[in-house]
User: Fold this.
Amino acid sequence: MQKAAIAIDLGATNLRVALITKIGKTIKKIKSKTPHQGKTGKVITNQLIKLTESIIEFSKQIDVNVLGIGISSIGPLDFKNGEIINSPNVPFKRVPVVQPIKKKFKLPVYLYNDCTSAVWGEKHFGAGKNYKNVVYITISSGIGGGAVVDNHLLFGRGGNAVEIGHFKIDTKYNFPCGCKKGKGHWEGYCSGNNLPRFFKFWLKENKINFSAKSIKTSKDLFGLARKKEKVVLKFLEEIGKLNAAGLNNVIVAYDPEIITLGGSVVLYNKEFIFPYFKKYLEKYLKIPKIAVTPLKEDVVLFGAASLVFWPPN
Ligand SMILES: [Zn+2]
Assistant:
């Protein structure tokens, strides 16, 4: 009988549940919106249970042996109780995850921060397969990361190790970060949500006369870059420098053999992101391989599956 894992991507916008085999074949994948209406976070738990039930039913029809349930989740997490607590991305104080799902399905359940599990997925299913030292970086609405060092998955006190989006990478602009805890953080400049915000600030700081009214999202910015708009290309070179500064910190902190990048900003705009690494990365340590994740949008789901097949310790 074929062995498979139930992989859950618990995001702020979508819940995705997949059935993935040990050789990385996705047999089935379903999704729904993440409920934001309701008295307590249990509305999210119940929706997850519903989706998981339907995948388990399907697995019975095709004779697949489900070994466990892996969950890649938004944070912050309360590791001990297996819950999401005080997340800025959902309107509930607590979302209980591990206990109710364990109780319902009587299977092992693993819950990790999405970037932590994504790097574990990269190591077992993706470009990190042949390496002991792997870093995964996502540049999407925010910036996050996960690291495997000497084959060990790093998670820290509360699963928040490798919060690289809040590395301090700049003191020239001292731009305040969306986390409201500091200035000069990588995410504050280079994430999808912050690119338009920093663009407007950058124009002002450099006294560049350019009407930025039409630029509301990072997609608008990259659209203008594709039309070879000079001011935007100049800005993206500045972003390239800042991304390189972030990567420099990653390299000296974790000494990886390979860094993979994912997240919508990278996946859809790599031609505006990657060239600057070559130009601006410092060489204090040997520069590792740097690639786009071959697992694309599903890196987090593969991460969840890898938690089941290779439980981290
Ligand atoms: Zn920050």
